[in-house]
TrEMBL record:
Organism phylogeny: Eukaryota, Viridiplantae, Streptophyta, Embryophyta, Tracheophyta
InterPro entries tied to this protein: DUF707
Source organism, top-level taxon: Eukaryota
Disordered: annotated segments: 80-99
Keyword match Transmembrane helix: yes
Coiled coil: none
Protein name as annotated: Lysine ketoglutarate reductase trans-splicing related 1
Length: 401
C-alpha cells in the first residue's frame, strides 16, 4: 500500500514544474507582445545604449546578460518617447540650410567654415593665441634654384605684413633654408609646373580670402626701385583692382601700356601703334597689364581664378581678358609708375621643357604658349556667344581683342 502513495507523491512536483513552465511561457509571450506594441516605431539605431552595452556588443564575453541589454533598451526608448512627448513633436526636423555652401546644407550655419587661410598654427597652447599678427597681403614667386639670389633680394622688399609663398618648379626646396625668411615661407614643390598651374590649384579664392591683395610674380624681376608697402598705398589711392609695377623701358620687350612713365604715380591708358587699339578703353591701350608681375585685389582675384583654365598652364591670353573681372576696367586696371621693376627676361622655366625633333627645350615651351593663347581665345569667345544665345540676345561680332 505504501508504493502507490510514493508514486503519487513523486508525480505532484512534476505536475507543478510543468505548470510553471507553461505559466512562464505564457508570461513571456505576453511580455513580448507588450514590448512589441510599446515600440512600434523604435529603430535599433535610435536606442541610446550606454558605454557598458557598447562594450558588450564589442566583447561578447563581458558577462552582461541579454536581459540587461533589453532593460537598458527599454529604459532608453521610454526616455526618448517621453522627450518627444514633452516637445510636442514626434520627430525633430532635420537641418537643411540652402544658403550654406554646396554640400554643407545639412550643417547648422554656426559650424560652417567656408574659407580658410595660409597662416601656420602651433601644435600646442590655446588656438586663439596662435597668431600675434595676421599678414594682410600674399606674394608668390614661381622659382628655380638658379634664381635664388634674385628671389632673396625680392623677398626682402616685402615686410612681415606679407605671407611669402614659393612654388618650386625644379623640386629643390631645402637649399633655400640658408635664408632666415625661407623658414617662415610656405613652400610648394611640383616639378616642371608654371605659376598659373600652381595658382589654380593652391590659390583658391576661399584659401586666400584673408588677404587684401595677392601678388603673383615671376622669378626674374629686379626690384631695386620697388617698395611693396608704398605700392599698396598707391593702388588703394588710385582704385586699382588689377595692377602691375611699371617696367623699365629699355630692358626687354614690353607693351607701351606697361612701360614706366617717369612723370606720374600711375597711368591707366596709353597710345599704341596705329591700328592696334580699335577702342581707347580696350587692350592694349587700356584695361591691360601683363602677367609677369600682376597684383590682384581680393575681389578681382575671385573672378580671375575662375577664368584660369585647368589645362592651359602658361596664362597666355589671360592678360587681355582680365578686364572681364572689373568694371569699369579702364579705371580699375593700371600701371604703378613710381614703384617700378626691371624684367630681366631669364628663360629659366623655358629650359624645363623637353628637346624634341632637334629643337631646344625652350622652343617647345614657346610653341605651347602660342597654342594655349589660341585655345583660350576660342573658349572665351564660344562661352560668351553661348551665354548671349541662352539669353535670347544676338551675340556681338567679338568681345575679344
Amino acid at each position: 500500500m505504501a508504493k502507490p502513495a510514493n508514486s503519487i507523491g513523486r508525480s505532484t512536483p512534476r505536475s507543478n514544474e510543468g505548470m510553471r513552465l507553461i505559466f512562464s511561457a505564457v508570461i513571456g509571450i505576453m511580455l513580448g507582445y507588450l514590448f512589441g506594441v510599446s515600440f512600434p516605431t523604435v529603430n535599433i539605431t535610435k536606442l541610446h545604449f550606454p558605454s557598458s552595452i557598447i562594450s558588450y556588443i564589442e566583447d561578447r564575453n563581458s558577462g552582461i546578460t541579454t536581459q540587461t541589454l533589453l532593460n537598458h533598451a527599454w529604459a532608453s526608448a521610454n526616455r526618448h518617447k517621453k522627450n518627444s512627448s514633452d516637445s510636442n513633436s514626434e520627430k525633430i526636423p532635420k537641418i537643411y540650410v540652402p544658403t550654406n555652401p554646396k554640400g554643407a546644407e545639412r550643417l547648422p550655419p554656426g559650424i560652417v567654415v567656408s574659407e580658410t587661410d595660409l597662416f601656420p598654427r602651433r601644435l600646442w597652447g590655446d588656438p586663439s593665441e596662435d597668431l600675434s599678427s595676421e599678414p594682410r597681403y600674399l606674394v608668390t614667386f614661381t622659382v628655380g634654384i638658379s634664381q635664388k639670389a634674385n628671389i632673396d633680394a625680392a623677398v626682402k622688399k616685402f615686410s612681415d605684413k606679407f605671407t611669402i609663398m614659393l612654388f618650386h618648379y625644379d623640386g629643390r626646396t631645402t637649399e633655400w633654408d640658408e635664408f632666415e625668411w625661407s623658414k617662415r615661407a610656405i613652400h610648394i614643390s611640383v616639378r616642371k609646373q608654371t605659376k598659373w598651374w600652381y595658382a589654380k590649384r593652391f590659390l583658391h579664392p576661399d584659401v586666400v580670402a584673408r588677404y587684401d591683395y595677392i601678388f603673383i610674380w615671376d622669378e626674374d624681376l629686379g626690384v631695386e626701385h620697388f617698395n611693396a608697402e608704398a605700392y599698396i598705398e598707391l593702388v588703394k589711392k588710385h582704385g586699382l583692382d588689377i595692377s602691375q609695377p611699371g617696367l623699365q623701358p629699355d630692358k626687354g620687350l614690353t607693351w607701351q601700356m606697361t612701360k614706366r612713365r617717369g612723370d606720374q604715380e600711375v597711368h591707366k591708358v596709353t597710345e599704341e601703334r596705329p591700328g592696334w587699339c580699335t577702342d581707347p578703353h580696350l587692350p592694349p591701350c587700356a584695361a591691360f597689364v601683363e602677367i609677369m608681375a600682376t597684383v590682384f585685389s581680393r575681389d578681382a582675384w575671385r573672378c580671375v581664378w575662375h577664368m584660369i583654365q585647368n589645362d592651359l598652364v602658361h596664362g597666355w591670353g589671360l592678360d587681355f581678358a582680365l578686364r572681364k573681372c572689373v568694371e569699369p576696367a579702364h579705371e580699375k586696371i593700371g600701371v604703378v609708375d613710381s614703384q617700378w621693376i626691371v624684367h630681366q627676361a631669364v628663360p629659366s622655366l623655358g629650359n624645363q621643357g623637353n628637346a624634341e625633333n632637334g629643337k631646344a627645350p625652350w622652343e617647345g615651351v614657346r610653341a605651347r604658349c602660342r597654342k594655349e593663347w589660341e585655345i583660350f581665345q576660342t573658349r572665351l569667345a564660344d562661352a560668351e556667344k553661348a551665354y548671349y544665345l541662352s539669353q535670347g540676345i544676338t551675340p556681338p561680332n567679338s568681345t575679344l581683342v
